[in-house]
Automatic annotation (TrEMBL):
<dbReference type="GO" id="GO:0004588">
    <property type="term" value="F:orotate phosphoribosyltransferase activity"/>
</dbReference>
<feature type="active site" description="For OMPdecase activity">
    <location>
        <position position="95"/>
    </location>
</feature>
<dbReference type="Pfam" id="PF00215">
    <property type="entry name" value="OMPdecase"/>
</dbReference>
<feature type="binding site">
    <location>
        <position position="150"/>
    </location>
    <ligand>
        <name>substrate</name>
    </ligand>
</feature>
<dbReference type="GO" id="GO:0004590">
    <property type="term" value="F:orotidine-5'-phosphate decarboxylase activity"/>
</dbReference>
<keyword id="KW-0210">Decarboxylase</keyword>
<feature type="binding site">
    <location>
        <position position="59"/>
    </location>
    <ligand>
        <name>substrate</name>
    </ligand>
</feature>
<dbReference type="InterPro" id="IPR018089">
    <property type="entry name" value="OMPdecase_AS"/>
</dbReference>
<comment type="similarity">
    <text>Belongs to the OMP decarboxylase family.</text>
</comment>
<feature type="binding site">
    <location>
        <position position="209"/>
    </location>
    <ligand>
        <name>substrate</name>
    </ligand>
</feature>
<keyword id="KW-0665">Pyrimidine biosynthesis</keyword>
<dbReference type="InterPro" id="IPR014732">
    <property type="entry name" value="OMPdecase"/>
</dbReference>
<keyword id="KW-0456">Lyase</keyword>
<feature type="domain" description="Orotidine 5'-phosphate decarboxylase">
    <location>
        <begin position="31"/>
        <end position="245"/>
    </location>
</feature>
<dbReference type="GO" id="GO:0044205">
    <property type="term" value="P:'de novo' UMP biosynthetic process"/>
</dbReference>
<dbReference type="InterPro" id="IPR001754">
    <property type="entry name" value="OMPdeCOase_dom"/>
</dbReference>
<feature type="active site" description="For OMPdecase activity">
    <location>
        <position position="92"/>
    </location>
</feature>
């Protein structure tokens, strides 16, 4: 099986934004992505500035913000440059190709303008990838397919559904950077794997979320990036201390495989 070393994969990667991501991971020695699920512009900027030194990727849900504006995007992009991280708008597109093209490129958020990565469900079939690709590839963006979900009873985690994700990705390796999944799914192409539902202290949130450890996800399951939200900024947490802790746990789990 191929080397899973990030440096080797940087040399092999063909999508420029994937090269950028791997270069950041190697340079900063981090495979941590923070899921920045906060409700105000200032809270998002403060969080990004605090965790910035420890992450390779900031994952956003931009439609959670009550006070989104274009200045937010400018300031967030400035923080990404300051701390050397990329941005992943976790939009989870799920409509027909023609509709997602507009949702991705237009509207209030203009996601394609500022987000290096976004993701989609392949429920509608391959047209959703084609639609997003028409908008995103000319801008140098990358797409992740939700081949699995972290939640109890997820309908995406059936073997056929997950396998169809891999087949579709293999037909679009110029735009599909990888997957949201709990584990590496194929060695036929070197995709990037990102895994949410990661936590060191609790096993769930009472709403279906399930948490596994960086050791399980990175060392044993051979995923590449841990995505951590409330484990870092939940009630009573010291954000910087937790970001440092998860960065260390993620990197040690990587070195151990
Ligand atoms: N997310 C999951 N599971 C998935 C896909 N996405 O939790 O299968 C996203 C959520 C949230 C983050 O939308 O932004 O990852 C997890 O946050 P948490 O660490 O606070 O649970």
């Amino acid at each position: 099986s191929p080397s899973l070393n990030y440096q080797d994969r940087l040399a092999r990667a063909t999508i420029p934004v994937v090269q950028d991501l791997l270069r950041i991971m190697v340079t900063k020695e981090t495979n941590l992505s923070v899921a920045a699920d906060v409700k105000t512009k200032q809270a998002l900027l403060d969080l990004a500035d605090q965790v910035g030194p420890y992450i390779c990727l900031l994952k956003t849900h931009i439609d959670i913000l009550v006070d989104f504006d274009n200045d937010l995007v400018e300031q967030l992009s400035r923080l990404a440059a300051k701390h050397n991280f990329l941005i992943f708008e976790d939009r989870k597109f799920a409509d027909i190709g023609n509709t997602v093209k507009m949702q991705y490129g237009a509207g209030i958020y203009r996601i394609a303008d500022w987000s290096h990565f976004t993701n989609c469900h392949v429920v509608p079939g391959e047209g959703i990838i084609q639609g997003l690709q028409e908008v995103g590839q000319p801008l140098g963006r990358g797409l992740l397919l939700l081949a699995e979900m972290s939640t109890v009873g997820s309908l995406a985690n059936t073997p056929t559904y997950t396998a169809q994700n891999v087949e579709m990705a293999l037909r679009h390796t110029d735009f599909v950077a990888g997957f949201i999944a709990s584990r590496r799914l194929t060695d036929d192409h070197d995709f990037i794997y990102m895994t949410p539902g990661v936590g060191l202290d609790v096993t769930g949130d009472g709403l279906g979320q399930q948490y596994r450890t960086p050791e399980q996800i990175i060392t044993r399951n051979r995923s590449d990036i841990i995505i951590v939200g409330r484990g870092i900024y939940g009630p009573g947490k010291d954000v910087v201390a937790e970001a440092q802790r998860y960065r260390k746990a993620g990197w040690e789990a990587y070195l151990a495989r």
